[in-house]
Amino acid sequence: MTNHWIDIRHSDCILIMGSNAAENHPISFKWVTRAKEKGAKLISVDPRFTRTSSKADFYAPLRSGTDIAFLGGMINYILENQKYYRDYLVTHTNAPYLVNEGFGFDDGLFSGYDSASRKYDKATWAMQTDEAGVVKKDASLDDPRCVLQLLRQHYSRYTLELVSSITGTPVEDLRTVYEMFSSTGGPEKAGTIMYALGWTQHTVGTQIIRTMAIIQLLLGNIGVCGGGVNALRGEPNVQGSTDMCVLYHILPGYLRAPWADAPDLKSYIAQVTPKTKEPNSANWWQNYSKYIVSLLKSWYGEAATPENDFCYQHVPKLDTGQNRSIMNFFDDMYAGKIKGFICLAQNPACHVPNANKTRAALAKLDWLVHANIFDNETASFWHGPGVDSKKVKTEVFLLPSAAFMEKDGSLTNSGRWVHWRYKASVPPGDGMPIGDMLYRLVNKLKALYKKEGGAYPAPILDLSWEYGDGKGNLDAMSVAKAVNGYFLKDVSAGGKDFKKGQNVPSFAMLRDDGSTSAGNWLYTGMVTPDGKNLAQRRGKSDPTGLGLYPEWSWCWPVNRRVLYNRASVDAQGQPINPNKPLLTWTGDKWVGDVPDGAWPPLADQEKTMRAFIMKPHGVASIFGPGLAEGPFPEHYEPVEGPLAQNPMSGQRINPVVKLFKDPIDVYAPADPRFPVVCTTYTATEHWCSGAISRWMPWLTEAMPQVYLEMSHELAEQKGIKNGDKVRIASARGQLDAVAMVTVRLRPFKVQGQEVHQVGMTFNYGWRHPKDAGDSANLLTPTVGDANTMAPEYKAFMVSVSKA
Amino acid sequence: MSEGKSIIMDTSRCTACRGCQIACKQWNGLPGTKTKQTGTYQNPPDMSYQTFKVVRFAEGKADNGKPYWYFFSDMCRHCLNPGCMEGNKKNEIIQDPATGAVIHTPATKKLDYNTVLAGCPYDIPRQDPKTKELKKCTMCLDRMRDNKIPACVKTCPTGALVFGEREEILKIVEERVAKLKQTHPKAKALNPDDVRVIFIVTDDPDRYHKFAEA
Fold first, then answer.
1. What is the CATH number of the domain that holds B100?
2. What is the DSSP string of A656-701?
3. Of B16, B21, B36, the CB nearest to A51
4. 3-state DSSP of A171-193
5. What local confidence, expressed as pLDDT, does residue A731 receive?
6. What pLDDT, on the 0 to 100 scale, is given for residue A321?
């Protein structure tokens, strides 16, 4: 989230799309309800009328996988009807920037596409610069090469009629949603978007989110109370684990994972550090070197020196362009290339796409170590449906682990608030926190490498591993301190003197000379120099009255509750919306939220810095060359969709998406055998693959068995009655479910044809309860987003028949 | 008695997260019963001697052609003059003098179930087939006596369930219904003068549940 949960109450219009917040983030509706009661309008856009839709002022259906078309139409509407916030665009975005003459777009492809490698050369996706290297701009926004005019040209194709014929949303519904949401353009109002996996889990997921970011910038809704681009993240600590590098392509704090073309630290830093010639741009990532060096110092301690590149060589390198996402990992396992698998607190046999492939892959392992609080379909794959246990060679070790209330640690919520949690009880039996397992495992590895040497022992032996509680287990507070970081010698910084060993109070004080250590620069400041863990705070003071609660927990970065908050003030630093004064310049300092930089407001052209400090030029990107598919989002059909042609262009699917080639990874688009669009989701009553919640009798009582939600129209066509057992099949697998025939789904009119859509939860598995049914991921395709590899769980094709 | 406590169940704020249904089971130590998916979110399908609170789901097409989906977190209304007490022989069903909670004591095993049920316009009491005791919501009398609010209210994230002194609650109900009427002309409170657990609906009560209103 750019903003935070409580902030939703300040919104004038809440769009919930790509999320079913009432069901999957039930507590969020505390704040949605408050906003509504102050007059905010709630819009729900979803293929299925959900519990969220039931509370909306307006509901519009759309076919799964057509969000960019839907939102592209909104961009067109905003531009054609002058709903945008012109001052904001000129001040805070690259709308006035002039784009390279060589940049172009034709028939679904941007300039620079290479069809053989299915990749873009991004050379032309750049700005025009003058002799000094400064970007050329046209503040009038009239120049045909300025970003705003190119945006207008691109989205003029997204007419109401064409969008409707793609999404299946009636034209009137589109117009109503566009009108309602774009009413938040301008200084007085703020609109927010609440999205979640309904956007990320598409082959164009990242671009859907970017389309919405463009809308929010056009309307001036970023950096203000009640606005923002807000990803709803959940109970599994998704925010915290992403911050701490759960993904293969990043290190803690979103630093890029080293790769082969950056063989030493110097070339790594040269390639990752953005440069700008723009005056008044903080270009905060110019500090990259300080964060990577402090991280290496945290990992390798005294072994890391300037002379040995701070042990940069110890960090594994990806081959250039190498994709190590979970689908690739299972692809390698299926091909027999992986012998052992340590699987912690996950259930890939149910949650990875194409579960038949995943389950077959597990049988090719020599060993599987699985830590969880219950047995599940992954640990028990060897006696799953259709598996001959005698033929499975894999040795499985199931380690009972501790649940969240059985250990200390932190949890970071969607609003980036880090909450410390305390151990409330002892895990039953041999149960142990996974942190303790890893702590002991590395100690064993260190001892073995020390004793036996072996291949390249240095990365293990040099690893700083001082997180113990003195009794052989992990001390969570020691980890928190290492993550925060500390000074490695006595220094003066920010007008104060710090002693060696004292915690660093802000990432602004991190250095790249080896004098500071920090495991995650974003979390620097969480533990104070005198050792106070601010994530433990529960202060309820609310000085702004806006619900920022600066003394409740601690939030990254530097306890700033709303990112880019200086976009909420005018050139003199006064709140543009005086009713929600997030920040105010008093003449010598800012009061309110923690500002994203202490520089004076924009009127002080000598000293000021622009609000979007994380962007190289200090402004937000309406034209954004960072993603794999192009600088403007474009509608492509899901890899498995009902249409043989993309009505927008000759490119049916995302041109840069990775397709898997094994015969088990078959895709069947526009195939008469599989004519029905299917999507998957979770119910309130279960959690993820249900590996934990299915063992809770009150929850399985409320949602006992796998079900397929379908329209009366489709049910009638197939002779299916509510409660009947039905069989759902895709090109990859099939499963049975109970039919839930409902008015909440209806056929779509797509390109003049009737297209049916169904949906089911991925909360079930064969292991428990016995009659619950199996995973929806037996059906889903092995394909993911071109930038993140988030699987396309949300749109694929099936057949439905009476079982 | 007309003082004591009251609860609002404002369906316009309810998202059917079913936190209340689960919290009721948890506080009262009631088991998760074995259920089947029958083509609805509503489960368990009805009240039972092991289920004192059930969120009812009702769907259909609204006048504008779009779907509606109404949620009704059903529970004992704790009537001011409880019809179920008509079936009393002695004091098997009692009314707590401080709060007004209507309590079916273990002695209800001596009562005729059908007579008690017939006295309830909301179809609430259920009988334990083994002990023959009648079972239903207690308004969490045990919690109230410990100055705690009922478990279902405590867990509600949206403010759909509100607990308080009856006098106060009646005022809130009146204000809320007046506000809802601006956008939903059919908004009303159900039997507010007769019950302690006052449901607020925005459409015909029948669309929520057959026994929504007496």
1. 3.30.70.20
2. T-----SGGG---TT-TTS-EEEEEE--TTS-TTSTTGGG-HHHHH
3. B16
4. HHHHHHHHHHHHCCCCCCCCEEE
5. 98
6. 84
Q: How close B68 comes to chain A (CA, Å)?
A: 6
| B194 shares a domain with B103 | no
Q: Are residues B9 and B74 both part of a single domain?
A: yes
In a domain, B87, yes or no: yes
| A326-447 classified as CATH 3.40.50.740 | yes
Note the residue count of chain B. Answer: 214
pLDDT digits (tens, 9 = 90+) for A451-482: 999 999 999 999 999 999 999 999 999 999 99
B63 and B159 together in one domain: yes
Q: Does B214 reside within a domain?
A: no
Residue among A30, A51, A739 whose CB faces B157 most closely:
A30
Task: Give the burial string for A188-221 (b: 16+ CB within 10 Å, else e).
Answer: ebbbbbbbbbbbbbbbbbbbbbbbbbbbbbbbbb
Number of domains, chain B: 2
Q: Which two tokens stand for residue A300?
A: 């390798």
**Chain A hits for B34, Cβ within 8 Å:** 701, 704
Estimate the crossing angle of helix A171-182 against helix A67-80, to 10 degrees. Answer: 60
Residue of B15, B35, B208 to mutate when probing chain A, most A C-beta within 10 A: B15
Helices A288-300 and A265-272 sit at what angle, rounded to 10 degrees? 140
Is this structure's pTM higher than 0.80? yes
Interface contact flag, A684 B17, Cβ < 8 Å: yes
What are the residue boundaries of the structural domains of chain A, listed by start? 326-447, 663-802
**Nearest-CA distance A241 → chain B (Å):** 26
pLDDT of B2 higher than 70: no
Read off the tokens for A117: 């490698």
Selecting from 3.40.190.10, 1.10.240.10, 3.40.50.1580, 2.40.40.20, what CATH number does the domain A663-802 have? 2.40.40.20
Residue B33 Cα, gap to closest chain A Cα (Å): 6
Domain endpoint, select from B119, B137, B155 = B137
H-run or E-run covering B27: helix B19-28
Task: Retrieve residue A660's tokens.
Answer: 């898997």
Q: Do residue A706 and residue B21 have CB atoms under 8 angstroms apart?
A: no
Residue B34 sits in the same domain as residue B97: no
CA–CA dist B58, A753 (Å, integer): 31
Give Cβ neighbours of residue A795 (< 8 Å, ≥ 6 apart).
Answer: A64, A65, A202, A638, A640, A641, A677, A678, A679
ipTM of the complex: 0.97
In this complex, which of A700, A702, A705 lies closest to B21 when CB atoms are compared? A702
B39/A723 touch (CB, cutoff 8 Å), yes or no: yes
Percent of chain A with pLDDT over 90: 98
